[in-house]
Design brief:
By secondary structure, the chain is an alpha/beta fold. Helix content is 40%, strand content 25%. The protein is built from 16 helices and 17 strands. It has helices at residues 10-13, 20-31, 46-59, 77-84, 93-102, 107-114, 151-167, 189-195, 197-200, 227-242, 254-265, 279-285, 303-310, 314-320, 325-339, 386-405, and strands spanning 2-8, 35-42, 62-66, 89-91, 118-120, 124-125, 135-139, 142-147, 177-185, 205-212, 215-223, 246-249, 269-273, 294-299, 343-349, 364-371, 374-381. The strands form 4 sheets. The chain has a 6-stranded mixed sheet, sandwiched between helices. Strands 14-13-15-16-17 form a 5-stranded mixed sheet. Mean pLDDT is 92; it is low at 408-419.
Amino acid sequence: MIGEIIAVGDELTTGRIVNTTSAFAAQQLFLAGHEITAIHTVGDAPALIGNALRRAIRRAEFVLVTGGLGPTTDDLTNEAASAALHRPPTLNHKLLEKIRAQSKGTACCQNALEKLAWLPQGAEVLNLDARMAGHFLIHDTVPIFFLPGVPGQAVTLLLESVLPRLAAWPGTGRRMVRMRLYRTVGLSECEINRRLLDLEQEDWASIGYYPVEGEVHVSLTVTGSEADPLFGKAEQHLRTALGDHLYGIDQESLAQTVGGLLRAQGLLLATAESCTGGLIGAKITAVPGSSAWFAGGVIVYTNQLKEKLLGVEAELLRKYGAVSGPVAEAMATGLAERSGAAITVAVTGIAGPDGGTTDKPVGTVYIGLFHQGKARSALHHFSGTRGEIQAMAAAMALDAVRRVLISSSLIGRTDCVIG
């Protein structure tokens, strides 16, 4: 079925909250064989909500509305739907009984909560046992599902109530859909696109490219009655084209991949960060259980701390400068000596927007790596904002560790230019 999603809330249109609910809903509906052609975000204004609803009904075979179902005065979705569809508010007595039972002892809020029981005429409750029951109605043969805006509540109702109802809807048949996300590092979006042009020519395959914090994620979608065998064929093509730049699948982060390799080899990692300011450590410690393979890290911006904490020689700093290959190697070596970690990675560079020179412009980053008694370094040139440069540097530092752990020779290159 073809559907549209309408997300309601000033908190969404002002950017105070990121609309993750619509993204999750679209993904789940797609995997269930439905096609979402539009996602709308509107503020808490009855006219906006009503107009979006009427337009969606004319175009779609089903509509999903999230948000604006609560007890406060700015929750106006039900009122807007009633007016737009000419369905007077009607009291749902079963829902009212449930609300009264749950709100005993909170008389000051009971009247506000009872607002939840007034639904557009013809609406049916989705799940009376849920904290927020949700509801749906059929208007001009189009089913409209109303879910709360709280992500956890909306997800539960979507999975347990909406998807089963759509699956059983008369005249609908489930499309075969296979979809997977492939995570890469070290290749530009354009280069990945070039490598996958042949696959893009297949009418049964759809490919998307998504730059994310120094990485590029690639989605592969195959639909049709032969989705399974065709997906296997497409995946093999994609894996071959991306080679060792492909590090993970679906939700696996680069730090998780590195952690898995370290754990498997029984090694500890430590980090020394200058221009990334702790970003590498943050990515690592976001992985549950990372203490099993991550010894810790230091953030050293001044030359004095590089000397004091990592043992970098003052003469080395004077001769080559803090942003240099020799200093990156010395940082990694000094950290290995002091931490006892089997492998260390160090980053030093110019993230900008100031500090660049003709010889070392903004975006110049050196990554040093110490492993098996040897230190090496690689030069990178990144472009973008300060945050983008830091993200790319962190990604490439983790990738340097990944590559040495899988016995790749790429880290040995003296000059890798990726921007």
